[in-house]
Amino acid sequence: MDLPGESQTRRRRGRRNPAAINRRKTPVDTVVAVSIICFQVLSIQAAAIQFTKEPKSQDALHGRSAMLRCEVSDPADIAYSWLHNGQPLESSERRFQEGSNLKFTAVDRRLDAGNFECVAQNTASGEMLHSTNASFNIKWLESGGVTLKEPSSEGEIESSAPVTLRCHIDGHPRPTCQWFKDGLKLTEKSHQINNKERTLTFKSASPDDNGLYYCCAKNAAGHVCSNSNFTLNIIGVCVCVCVCLCMTVC
Ligand SMILES: *[C@@H]1O[C@H](CO)[C@@H](O)[C@H](O)[C@H]1NC(C)=O
Ligand SMILES: *[C@@H]1O[C@H](CO)[C@@H](O)[C@H](O)[C@H]1NC(C)=O
């Protein structure tokens, strides 16, 4: 009973006050206008290329596989390509584009150094977008031999004089090195071992040091031993004297 009365009152008020009707219409117009603007903005955004996946800088192991990913929100009409240090990437069996991603069957610490970026191009509109640059932190470990560092040649090795051997195993991150004499591990207590230089020094070499020396090293990329040994063969003073005596006597 009350409701019709109320609605009549509202209608009457409405009729009596046309300004109120105008005020009511205004927000509607605004909503329509905003909707149109929003729709236009949305259509522009839909047309623009947007990456949903960009290649990320990452750790990699030399010789192992890796993948750099690239993806856009709307892949219709999108052609992907990759740049390496700003240059178009040449595909090989080792490193090739697979769909939109870049696949490495075996990361190479020299060939894969530097920046990789993904380029997405809309083949219909010509629009092009470059991803961020990504690079590999390539971990590696490479074997080498044991060489004589000091003196410069084996012929110059003298008893009671310093001798330094160097381990040519290299890698990233810097490998930690261990020395072996006749298969037994040498300790830093009994020997002068420089881990940074990867050297083993005898301050005063003696025939007691004679033996077969090699080194092994490890880091995050693995563990290897030297690919050549060094045989230290110091002729003692006593031996020299004996030989001299022998020769004199003979
Ligand atoms: C990526 O790196 C290359 C060179 O390596 C450079 O030319 C290019 O401008 C870089 N791109 C970005 C987005 O930083
Ligand atoms: C080094 O010496 C060890 C122990 O005698 C031996 O097993 C190894 O084969 C040698 N390595 C090379 C490269 O000669």
TrEMBL record:
Biological process (GO), any one: axon guidance
The UniProt record lists the keyword Manganese: no
Record region (Disordered): 1-22
Pfam families: I-set (PF07679), Ig_3 (PF13927)
Entry keyword annotation includes Cell division: no
Domain of life: Eukaryota
SUPFAM superfamilies: Immunoglobulin
Protein name, as recorded: Protein tyrosine kinase 7 (inactive)
An annotated Gene Ontology molecular function: cell-cell adhesion mediator activity
Swiss-Prot/TrEMBL keywords: Immunoglobulin domain
Matching InterPro entries: Ig-like_dom, Ig-like_dom_sf, Ig-like_fold, Ig_I-set, Ig_sub, Ig_sub2
Cross-referenced PANTHER family: BASIGIN RELATED (PTHR10075), FASCICLIN-2 (PTHR10075:SF100)
Domain Ig-like as annotated: residue spans: 49-135, 144-231
Gene Ontology CC entries for this record: axon; plasma membrane
Origin species: Seriola lalandi dorsalis
